[in-house]
Amino acid sequence: MFGIGYLQRLGRAMMLPMTVLPAAAIFLMLSRLPWDSVGLQSAPVLLHSAGMAIFAYVPYVFAVGIALGLSNQSVHAGMASLVGMIIFGAVTQAYDPGGVQPSMFAGVVIGMLSGWANERFKSFQLPESLQFFGGTRFVPIFMSAFSFVFAWLMIGIGQGLLAWIGATGGLVNSAGGFGIFLYGFLHRILVAFGLHHLLNHLFWFQIGDYTAPDGSVYFGDMPRFFAGDPTAGVYMTGLYPVIMFALPAIAYAIIHEAREDLKPKTAKQFRVAALTAFVTGVTEPVEFAFLFVAPYLFIVHALLSGGIMWLTYELGIREGFTFSAGALEYIINFRLSERGWLIIPIGLAVAVFYYVLFRWSIRRFQLSTPGREDSTRLDDWGGDIPYRAPLVLQALGGKDNISRIEACITRLRLTLNDDRRVDTKSLRHLGAAGVIRLGGGHVQVVFGTYSDLIRGEIVKLMQLDVHQVQFHAPLQGRMIPLEEVDDPIFAQKLVGNGVAFFPEKGELVAPVRGKIIHLYPTKHAIGIETPEGLEVLLHIGINTSQMNGEGFTALVKEGDEVMPGQPLIRFHLPTLKAHAKSLATPMVITNSDIVRSWRFAPFKAVKKGQAAVMSVVVRERENGGAEL
Question: Per the residue annotation, which of 13, 408, 435, 443 is the catalytic one?
Fold first, then answer.
């Protein structure tokens, strides 16, 4: 239950309640405006009360959010967790109003158990006369009983547990700057695995306590900061120079080290990524640009992040946030900060250092960062997601391979039946910044802020009974639209619809499963019929029939059954260049009238056998033969 897959789901579930917290910061910021000057004397008190109420009830918010996240948004799990927290609070309050409080620990435990109970009891059966209370309706009943017992248990061990949490916080705080450094280092390392939310939860909502002047008690770095604790914010402050300055500096280093022909496109993409990190604090689009090509550089980045956090701690800077350390939060929370203005000069120095370090590293070690190779990113077709999502689904191994699909802010979080079926190259070709395999079928695909939109489209596709035929790249080279082929017969789609390729190596492989129905005597073209009835023509070069088979070697014969990636024809590329009108190699469906819809990957460089370069839906399969 508590393997790496469960932990990544828990980390994702914790992000849902985090989206509520920025509202608290906004209310508190507004409460500090001079409302008296416009005759609204009561506004500061009301706004401050609204903001602090969110922090006061944050255990309830986390309980519900975690339950929803772990149960695929089941309202029964969410309701059960809310009821559980109400019972927990009522029981502990009735026993001793000054004793055990509804804490983040209680909220997480009840949220996790509600998610588990929903999965465990959703098919629970009772005798027919009582079945109304069976299934998911049993979950709130179960959680009510559990929460009562849990509250009773916490009353007995509450003081000891509070003492242990206090001791833990004291131990961490006793480490001083080194403890802050260690947190900063681990935070960045865990970003790569999508598990940093678990670490954040401990430090931001558990460690340390503060009693406000009104007697309210707040736990964790974040609530304490907004409640006015002058010692709070140490686990948040140092993230501002890293996120607002270091990450944009890395983005501009990548831009300036890009190839001249790719620099305009790279600049467009990474200026947006830099602005996203600076303003909102979302860092993955930049960090994943170098994580996989230079993991050792990411470790250096993590060490530097820890060092920066240590520096801000020693300088006595205290600043907080409710979501992430972006410029918006910096401005909103500035008036609560201690020496917050120092973040700007420190950040500028950090930006210069990071920019020089990364430009030198990219050039010295010839790192394949974006813009230094002919790669593509999702930003190129962000507005085309509904049409390209089927290609992403196919690169994940198809809908039969997906057991669970979720998304957080920057990545798809998947549980797959067989993670070996994932085509990493195709996913990167389709814009993924990285693919992380966690073992046990658990995979994360980083698509940036488009991730949730992609998840939504994939879920729609999985709910439809639509059969898609996936085409692999028949050769290594560059994929182009059929209209760009230097032959009017293909360019005007008189033979059929499809795509074309400029080969870099002299081997043609099968793009789909099927049977060889025609092999031209000159061996320059071959036809395949798929089980769906598609007739696929592969034509190597233009006007190559006049070569009379020179330079071509067939590896199959008519009637052979072939699989995707199986070699079909080898050809001598220099001979082709010398005699053919063009190297363009069309891949067309000659009976394209039976195709219901088409999907094309970005027209860029492809590898031989690469999945998901084209996907089609056949009318006969979609409509049960009604249109054929």
Answer: 408
pLDDT digits (tens, 9 = 90+) for 169-189: 566 667 788 889 988 898 888
Partners of residue 434 on adjacent β-strands: 446
Computed over every residue of the chain, the mean pLDDT equals 83
Extract the tokens encoding 305.
């992040």
- Based on the residue annotation, tell me whether 228 is a catalytic residue of this protein: no
Which pair of tokens denotes residue 478? Answer: 């560059």
Q: Residue 179 carries which side chain, given as an amino acid letter?
A: G
pLDDT on residue 373: 60
Q: Which residue shows structure tokens 């828990």?
A: 10
pLDDT at 499 over 50: yes
3-state secondary structure of 93: helix
66-113, pLDDT tens digit by residue? 888 888 778 888 898 999 999 988 888 888 776 666 776 788 889 889
- Residue 435 CB contacts under 8 Å (≥ 6 apart), including other chains: 422, 424, 427, 428, 443, 444, 445, 446
CA distance 502 to 489: 17
Token match 């309210």: residue? Answer: 216
With 50 as the cut, is the pLDDT of residue 379 above it? no
Tokens of 136: 């998911």
| pLDDT exceeds cutoff 50 at 534 | yes
Question: What is the secondary structure of 25-54 as a DSSP string?
Answer: HHHHHHHTS-GGGGT-TTHHHHHHHHHHHH
Q: Go through 443-481 and write b for each residue having 16 or more CB atoms within 10 A of its CB, e for each that does not.
A: bbbbbbbbbeebbebbbebeeeebebbbbbbbbbbebbe
How confident is the model at residue 159, as a pLDDT? 64
CA distance 309 to 183: 9
- Outline where 396-474 has alpha helix (H): 424-429, 451-463
Cα(321)–Cα(303) distance, integer angstroms: 22
CA dist 272 and 251 (Å) reads: 9
Q: Which residues on neighbouring strands pair with residue 471, listed in sequence order?
A: 614
Lowest mean pLDDT among 315-329, 572-586, 599-613: 599-613
| Contact (Cβ atoms closer than 8 angstroms) between residue 499 and residue 480 | yes
| Strand 567-571 to 595-600 pairing | unpaired
Angle between helices 196-205 and 177-191 in degrees, nearest 10? 150
Cα 608 from Cα 628, distance rounded (Å):
33
Map 546-578 to HEC letters. Answer: HHCCCCEEECCCCCCEECCCCEEEEECHHHHHH
Q: How far apart are CA 316 and CA 297, in angstroms?
A: 29
Spatial separation of the C-alpha atoms in residues 129 and 149, rounded to whole Å: 28
pLDDT for 250 equals 94
**How is the beta sheet containing 561-562 ordered, strand by strand?**
561-562, 514-519, 525-529, 535-539, 585-589, 497-503, 477-481, 605-606
Q: What is the mean predicted confidence (pLDDT) over 54-61? A: 81
In the three-class reduction of DSSP (H, G, I as helix; E, B as strand; rest coil), residue 626 is classed as coil
Q: Which of 462, 471, 603, 479 is nearest to 528 (CA)?
A: 471
Nearest alpha carbon to residue 507 among 560, 579, 547, 567: 567
**Mean pLDDT calculated for residue range 226-233:** 90
Q: Residues 472, 564: contact at Cβ < 8 Å?
A: yes
Phi, psi (degrees; rounded to nearest 5) at 507: -140, 130
Return the closest-CA partner of residue 312 out of 179, 180, 189, 205.
Answer: 180
pLDDT value at residue 169: 58
